[in-house]
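[step 3/7] fold_predict: job queued, chain A
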Amino acid sequence: MINDNSRNPLIVYRVEQARETVELAKFLIESDKLAVAVNRIYYGIILCRNSPGCQKWF
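[step 4/7] structure written:
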């Protein structure tokens, strides 16, 4: 189990990964790569959902 001091940097890292993934999805949508974009959107949601911050409350 990680403590709150270790949890916060990990939350920031995971949320940033999710943001980058969503930005990539926007580019893929603009490039008409919709199937891949859906995959990236899903992955972004999972990254955020699985962050320690979300798991603390869900």
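[step 5/7] annotate
The two ends are 16 Å apart (CA to CA).
The mean pLDDT is 85.
exit 0
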